[in-house]
Amino acid sequence: MTRLTPYYAVIFTSTQNEDLSGYEDMANKMETLAKQQKGFLGIESARNNVGITVSYWESLEAIKSWKQDSEHLLAQQNGRTQWYNWYHVRICKVEREYDFKSK
Amino acid sequence: MTRLTPYYAVIFTSTQNEDLSGYEDMANKMETLAKQQKGFLGIESARNNVGITVSYWESLEAIKSWKQDSEHLLAQQNGRTQWYNWYHVRICKVEREYDFKSK
């Protein structure tokens, strides 16, 4: 996904607790829901020792609106009480980008 | 790591080829070298289907200087000819952040 900059990225890094019951269902649900939000551009995730999810958005307003979505608020609450040992959220403006693709 | 914003993040996403000979040594070497750069703040990585590495920097100048480091240039070249199927680099300004830590 290459877009005209600037747009916005949310870098979500985390480590998880041992009890992950319900997590996968909720994570899938939130990804589906995020993709339906106005201003959503894309999402990428990977997890080893640390989990990194980066979601891309057209504007800060789109990010704020998704943060306040009622189902997402419930997921955030479950995240804090059950699934996450810690997490860190960074709101970033993507100023420049370039890519490479092998032939 | 929580810093006074703004600072900068480089989001490097990639998928790899099958022949990864030499990759791990080079990746370790580049991480060690990056940490010695002026303006380096931190780095986080995870890889499943896609690899995501986010490095954090004090300034755009620090990012530019690291990109042009001679050993790093060689690693980038090897990345394009051998290890990476594709990669995407986004230069971002971290405007705001918050974190959570369980008790």
Quick rundown:
Two copies of one chain form a homodimer. With 103 residues, chain A is of the alpha+beta class.
Q: Can you give a write-up of this model?
A:
Two copies of one chain form a homodimer. With 103 residues, chain A is an alpha+beta fold. The mean pLDDT of chain A is 95. In chain A, strands 2-3-1-4 form a four-stranded antiparallel sheet. Helix content of chain A is 34%, strand content 42%. Chain A has one domain: Alpha-Beta Plaits (2-Layer Sandwich). The first copy, chain A, has helices at residues 23-35, 60-67, 70-83; strands at 7-16, 40-47, 51-57, 84-101. The interface between A and B is large, with 37 and 37 residues. Strand 4 of chain A pairs antiparallel with strand 4 (84-101) of chain B, so a sheet runs across the interface.
Walk me through the topology.
The structure is a homodimer of 103-residue chains.
Chain A: E1 7-16, H1 23-35, E2 40-47, E3 51-57, H2 60-67, H3 70-83, E4 84-101
Antiparallel strand pairs in A: 1-3, 1-4, 2-3
Q: Count the domains of chain A.
A: 1
Secondary-structure element string of chain A: EHEEHHE
Please state the second-level CATH architecture of chain A. 2-Layer Sandwich
Rg of chain A, please? Answer: 14 Å
Instruction: Specify the oligomeric state.
Output: homodimer
Largest interface: A-B, 37 and 37 residues
For this structure, the CATH topology of chain A is Alpha-Beta Plaits
Shape of chain A: globular
* Count of DSSP-assigned helices of chain A: 3
Physical arrangement of strands within the biggest beta sheet of chain A: 2-3-1-4
Uncertain stretches of chain A: none
How many E strands of chain A? Answer: 4
The CATH class of chain A turns out to be Alpha Beta
Calculate the terminal CA-CA distance of chain A, rounded to whole Å. 18 Å
